[in-house]
């Protein structure tokens, strides 16, 4: 079936009027679902990503359980460093690990961006399969990591409290850092265009490590690349006569970035739970859709407390130009029933005209 453009989430992303607030959950396909843990016990994380039938099956798991307004293709942001030649292992309990983190002398050895669409064709296959299975019910979100966030993992080699090794490059080796960020930007552009070509109807760029940057570092090493990705992806889609899909940017912890991002061509800006909805709105102005920002820990509360948190969040954001979500990925020990409560509360409260404006 031809993909539809009148889905709730796409309308909200474009700033059109909606009769209820759309909702999805970052990491909605993940370890809090017993059916995900079952698949994970059988296969390695990246094997799942590389096997379109498995990636498709897992993408659909949360959608079959909850009335979510979007699916997000099951993959990881670290497939780009892999495609450029780096080894990444997903260690249970520890997260991603690069056995050989990037050294200064390695930057020149990374593959050319042009290899990315071929190497990651398995993601495009998974998208085609998933769009087909969704039969136009809800849109499929494609995604990628932003260049700084990818660089931070590549240099650090794993998660970090400070990302000081990666940040040291920005101060000590700015020229080389820009070369690396440029390579990642070119790769991400080709990758995101390929996802739309395969059927993704909206794209999210995760700048999850924005929070480690100063406003100055963000302006120098993150913003220009985020901007280039958005502008070039949209231009290429137009040139290729593909749908110019809405784009979401999620600068986690980057309150300082919101005002600058509101002047870019991203349609939607994601916010984490550490900012008041009204402050986020005043920073981005009226012409961007906001996405977020329930504290992932709010899902540990009972039904009444989740509903109360959702009510406050909806009052803060209002109904127009808003997509409900958590302020970051869902935690693995959340009870799936709490997700059902969250999704239902967003839909129910936001379709009662008296509740919110
Ligand atoms: C930084 C980042 C990564 N990956 C991602 C980000 C950006 C979002 C964010 O800030 O969380 C994005 C991502 N990772 C995953 C998805 C799938 C789609 C979805 O949201 O459902 C998406 C969109 C699967 C995953 N990616 C990961 C899991 C769990 C690992 C497992 O199953 O063993 C899943 C389902 C692992 C992962 N992958 C990454 C980390 C740091 C970790 C470890 C943290 C953790 O364990 O939650 C890198």
TrEMBL record:
UniProt xrefs under CDD domains: URO-D (cd00717)
EC number(s) from the headed UniProt entry: 4.1.1.37
Catalytic function, reaction form: uroporphyrinogen III + 4 H(+) = coproporphyrinogen III + 4 CO2; uroporphyrinogen I + 4 H(+) = coproporphyrinogen I + 4 CO2
Domain of life of the native organism: Eukaryota
Keyword Lyase found: yes
GO terms (BP aspect): protoporphyrinogen IX biosynthetic process
GO CC annotations, alphabetized: cytosol
Classification via Pfam families: URO-D
Leading EC class: lyase
GO molecular function: uroporphyrinogen decarboxylase activity
Compartment(s) of residence: Cytoplasm, Cytosol
Residue stretches making up the Uroporphyrinogen decarboxylase (URO-D) domain: 22-31, 141-157
Coiled-coil segments: none
Keywords: Cytoplasm, Decarboxylase, Lyase, Porphyrin biosynthesis
Biochemical pathway: Porphyrin-containing compound metabolism; protoporphyrin-IX biosynthesis; coproporphyrinogen-III from 5-aminolevulinate: step 4/4
PROSITE patterns: UROD_1, UROD_2
PANTHER family from the UniProt entry: METHYLTETRAHYDROFOLATE:HOMOCYSTEINE METHYLTRANSFERASE RELATED, UROPORPHYRINOGEN DECARBOXYLASE
Function text: Catalyzes the sequential decarboxylation of the four acetate side chains of uroporphyrinogen to form coproporphyrinogen and participates in the fifth step in the heme biosynthetic pathway. Isomer I or isomer III of uroporphyrinogen may serve as substrate, but only coproporphyrinogen III can ultimately be converted to heme. In vitro also decarboxylates pentacarboxylate porphyrinogen I.
The protein's assembly and partners: Homodimer.
Family: Belongs to the uroporphyrinogen decarboxylase family.
Protein name per UniProt: Uroporphyrinogen decarboxylase
The encoding gene: LOC108683259
């Amino acid at each position: 079936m031809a993909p539809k453009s009148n889905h709730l989430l796409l309308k909200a992303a474009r700033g059109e009027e909606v009769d209820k607030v759309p909702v999805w959950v970052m990491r909605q396909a993940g370890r809090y679902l017993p059916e995900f843990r079952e698949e994970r016990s059988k296969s390695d994380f990246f094997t799942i990503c590389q096997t379109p039938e498995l990636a498709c099956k897992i993408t659909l798991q949360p959608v079959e359980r909850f009335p979510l307004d979007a699916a997000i293709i099951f993959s990881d942001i670290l497939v780009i460093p892999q495609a450029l030649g780096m080894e990444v292992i997903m260690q249970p309990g520890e997260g991603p690990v690069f056995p050989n983190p990037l050294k200064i002398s390695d930057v020149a050895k990374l593959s050319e961006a042009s290899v990315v669409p071929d190497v990651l064709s398995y993601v495009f296959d998974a998208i085609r399969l998933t769009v087909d299975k969704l039969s136009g019910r809800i849109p499929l979100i494609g995604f990628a990591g932003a260049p700084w966030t990818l660089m931070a993992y590549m240099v650090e080699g794993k998660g970090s409290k400070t990302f000081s090794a990666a940040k040291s490059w920005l101060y000590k080796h700015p020229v080389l850092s820009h070369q690396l960020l440029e390579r990642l930007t070119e790769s991400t552009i080709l990758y995101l265009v390929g996802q739309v070509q395969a059927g993704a109807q909206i794209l999210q760029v995760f700048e999850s490590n924005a929070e480690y940057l100063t406003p100055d570092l963000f302006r120098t090493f993150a913003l220009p690349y985020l901007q280039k990705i958005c502008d070039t992806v949209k231009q290429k889609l137009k040139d290729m006569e593909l749908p110019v899909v809405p784009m979401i940017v999620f600068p986690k912890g980057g309150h300082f970035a919101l005002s600058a991002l509101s002047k870019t061509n991203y349609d939607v800006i994601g916010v984490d739970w550490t900012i008041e909805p009204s402050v986020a709105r005043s920073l981005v102005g009226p012409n961007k859709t906001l996405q977020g920002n329930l504290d992932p820990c709010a899902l540990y509360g009972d039904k009444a407390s989740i509903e109360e948190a959702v009510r406050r969040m909806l009052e803060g954001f209002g109904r127009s130009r808003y997509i409900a979500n958590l302020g970051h990925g869902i935690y693995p020990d959340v009870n799936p029933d709490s997700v059902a409560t969250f999704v239902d509360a967003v839909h129910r409260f936001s379709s009662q005209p008296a509740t919110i404006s």
